[in-house]
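Form P-L/3: holo structure prediction, ligand calcium ion.
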Amino acid sequence: METTGKTVNELPSWNNGEAKTRILNFVKNATDSASKSYIPPAERIAVFDNDGTLWNEAPMLFQLNFTFDRIKNLAPQHPEWKTQQPFKAILENDRETMKKFSHKELGLLLAASHTGISPEEFKAAATQWFDTAQHPVYKRLYTKCVYQPQLELLNYLRENGFKNYIVSGGGVDFMRAFAEKTYGIPPEQIIGTSSKTKLETKAGKAVLEKTPELQSFDDRAEKVSNINLHIGRRPVLACGNSDGDLNMLQYTAGSATPNLVILIHHDDSEREMAYEKHPVMGELKEGLTEAKARNWILVSMKNDWKKVFPE
Amino acid sequence: METTGKTVNELPSWNNGEAKTRILNFVKNATDSASKSYIPPAERIAVFDNDGTLWNEAPMLFQLNFTFDRIKNLAPQHPEWKTQQPFKAILENDRETMKKFSHKELGLLLAASHTGISPEEFKAAATQWFDTAQHPVYKRLYTKCVYQPQLELLNYLRENGFKNYIVSGGGVDFMRAFAEKTYGIPPEQIIGTSSKTKLETKAGKAVLEKTPELQSFDDRAEKVSNINLHIGRRPVLACGNSDGDLNMLQYTAGSATPNLVILIHHDDSEREMAYEKHPVMGELKEGLTEAKARNWILVSMKNDWKKVFPE
Ligand SMILES: [Ca+2]
Ligand SMILES: [Ca+2]
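OUTPUT (holo model):
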């Protein structure tokens, strides 16, 4: 009988209750070769959304904060931005204009801040930002705005032979800059929104350059297509927080093997945010209905988590 | 000091010589934390081309044999194929017409044989073919037309903490049907040519369908872009056999960390095939020049390998 799980102090930041019990039972059965819900190690694929699932996304997606900060950093090399929208608004901290940015304007900002450089150069810029920038509300590094209970879940799964993947609408290179250190998830287990790269030769060396051309917008059904493209197996565990994750959750639930589907519900207006009161955040409507109909685990951040953020 | 390598009987089907010695030295240093050529485990990424690098590709790419066989299998459901090219030529085994298939005609055959079904259904069809079909020249299963010395190299690398990836122009779903069993390479470490998938609901379950729309033709510079997209790290070892691999080899050689680049040279007309004499196979011209100029390992199948195929 193969059992690799630890037996004490599992998921310490999770309150006792249905969510914790079902997660622990699922993993204990998955790793117990005598159980009819045993899952061979190679098939223990777990997929997690990132924004709002593993870390905070309020009041604004962290990658947008990064984008605006990077535009400010690059401004000295672009004197024309002083008079050019959408750049001007950022340099002047003109919040009214920023709130009304169109998709096209956001695209221009993303292109200016994320492309024209190699993935390695971008990673260095993002890493520097993660090492220094502070979240405007929580006044701490963005990498400290991750959810402590989820860090424990990732670790618990890994210790039990699961391979954790991120499958997120966030930029893949942006996530790769912090996820290995923060989540213990290596770059090859991160799937995200991506732009195309082109190969060039510089000083006799082959280097890639990030281009503005979209490769994949990793949301909704595209999450499932990318899981198939990158992983080639149906996951046995999926965790998300919005209707953008619904296809991925349904796909996981459709597996012939035992599976576990988890929805994180932002209902904690004191320690974090209750999304029903905040129309900008990732919408969770269909997902709530389906979670109840299909008996998925609905995690109440307010009731199921002892704490939200790490100390 | 971390040393995980075995010390006896490494690469038994490789003759002693420069190629074997350099591979063994690279791996011994990579795994010796006291060496200045040490490579941390997380960075030990090795990428291999497949056709002509890990298995035979002569006289025709195996995937084409599969394609033609599958067209024959599907023919009863498509009576119109009896009079319709390019299908007619395959059903009549009309080799003269088959030799002249255009890219468009090959595209029609690939679409008819590879799409309109789920990745799982495709995998089942390919697995059945791998379990039964015989190579026309070697009269053995296609999965027994792999190169024994390369199986040993993959295993040796894996035992020393390397993560082996396939990065091939072959279809990703086709390779996933045999590579785990044959090479010990799981689906999530296979990068190949892919078509787009679309998500559908069948009997209340989320299922993917393979469509004929090309997602990525994984050759030349696209191999490098896909390495970045899927792995997100520059490999430290790359192995190929044709100019289609050259970009991937150059990219690996451009790493700041120690790296090893290996080219397999088909120079064994007795036991396999000498490609200079065969214009259809993967061309190796620029690669040969560059291998010499950059001191890459050029593996002579004739001289460096004790045997070509497994018993
Ligand atoms: Ca989310
Ligand atoms: Ca090849």
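COMMENT: Strands of chain A lie at 45-48, 163-171, 190-202, 205-216, 237-240, 260-265, 297-300.
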